Amino acid sequence: ILSENIDEKVLFSGDGGDEIFTGYDKYRSIYLLNLLSKFNIFSNLGTNFKNKNLKRLSIKTSRDMFLSFSEQNMSKNQDYVYKNYQTVDTNDLDKVLNHSKSITNEPRLANVMLHEIDTWLQNDILLRNDKIYANSGIEVRVPFLDKNIIEKYLMINEFHKYGPFFKYKNLLKKFFSKETKHSMKSKSGFNSPFASWLRVELFRFANEILDKNYYDSSEFLNLNECKNLLKQHKNNYINPFLIWSLITLQVFLKKNKF
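^ thats the sequence. predicted structure below, dont judge the formating
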């Protein structure tokens, strides 16, 4: 909608600002985990923790730390809704973690962020934006992803990234403090409200999609369990990521006649 209602043909985009200057909650978590791991207080207690953050204290490589924070769709329900479900072997992920697959050193924040740039940023965010804007004849430039900016600021010391008060995008805000002093407004995330949609506006639509009458995908999905998961979500908020993935998969299977 935005791309269809602007006249300019070349735009600047802020993509990359979060990935270079620590704009995500998980980056702060990784930084704190790095600090705690230096005290080594859990090293003699083994790794059989139930708490996922305590488990992360024993992670030895940046790749494994990145993967640990990438499991958005993990759910105890997926074994029931997917047929013949199996997790991807981490050894196979070398095919996905392309340029950064050789980075297996300590799981410090900057190394984890490099994996983010190599996967999520270029294969999702930039690809999606390019398609959206190019469809309206608009070229988008991403100045935060300038080679010199990445090389200079991505690997900078984590303390300088956040400062003493753990501020998001601390360096970026310091650089432009004069320019933004009188114009800075609070920012809210630009997320799709599909969790609430699935409860009300899209509940009937989703229920129809996850049905054999729409498409019989019983070779791949347990559709009764999928619909049960949707009903549970309507009454009690549970893993909307998984439900949304099931809906899009069902549409994909029908469209491509699997």
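The mean pLDDT is 83.
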